[in-house]
Amino acid sequence: MAGLSLRSASAAYGGQRVLDPITLTIEVGEQVALVGRSGAGKSTLLSLLFDAERSDISYMPQELGLVHALSVFHNVYMGRLSAHASWYNIANLVWPFRHEVEAVEAVLEPLAMAPKLWSPVGELSGGQRQRTAVARTVYQDAGILLADEPVSALDGPQAHNVMRTLTSHYATAVLAMHDVELALRYTNRVVGIDEGRIALDEPAAELSPEDLLPLYRGETA
Questions:
Q1: CB atoms within 10 A of CB 97
Q2: HSE of 187, CA atoms in CB hemisphere, 13 A
Q3: Which of 83, 63, 100, 182 is nearest to 142 (CA)?
Q4: Which homologous superfamily is 1-56+143-221 in?
């Protein structure tokens, strides 16, 4: 399995440049936090990484893409739709196979979501929906994880639990994050984005939250 690479990649929307030309390589085994204030370009950079190599990647955008009328089980199961024939997926929609239910339950259990297995997603809280999307991402079981603010609706123990789950399952990951303390604790490399450019790229072990404060000018990190 290869890592990810961008060379002189840039992005603009409505004629306004969002990202300056950026060159970035993510090696296998690196768990990278993209940090910076809102609007700095983190989400755009994550999208460029996904567009550069869509195979064997699990991508969790901020817009979770859940189907609110379907149960938690079905939303998590959707992470592996491409692994099965159409008839098999339809069968699981109507009458889920026992071994598939058990596999989804195993993913939900560490996220404290197993009791919600058959609950419609539309009835869940924002934090529960985010954990459902995290479970789908884990269930997809790709080689690389790209996640955009995977704990934005969570705090305290649940945020730590999600970060432990994602980083223990995906040895290679890029996570756009706003919480610098979580970023430093659960990743091994930090890339700081400021005004569409890479302003910092250091091992997480060599940084403190104070080192990242300049990236949040006029904003509380």
A1: 12
A2: 31
A3: 83
A4: P-loop containing nucleotide triphosphate hydrolases (3.40.50.300)
Q: What is the pLDDT of residues 126-153, one digit of tens each?
A: 999 999 999 999 999 899 999 999 998 8
- DSSP H or E segment with residue 18: strand 16-26
Give the angle subtended at the CA of 173 by the CAs of 6 and 218, to the nearest 5°.
80
> For residue 41, what are the contacts with CB-CB under 8 A and spacing of at least 6?
11, 18, 19, 193, 195, 196, 197
> Residue 32 class from Cβ within 10 Å (0-12 exposed, 13-18 middle, 19+ buried)?
buried
Domains of the chain, by residue range, sit at 1-56+143-221, 66-141
**CA atoms of 42 and 15, how far apart (whole Å):** 19
- By the 8 A CB rule, do 121 and 63 touch? no
- Which pTM was predicted? 0.88
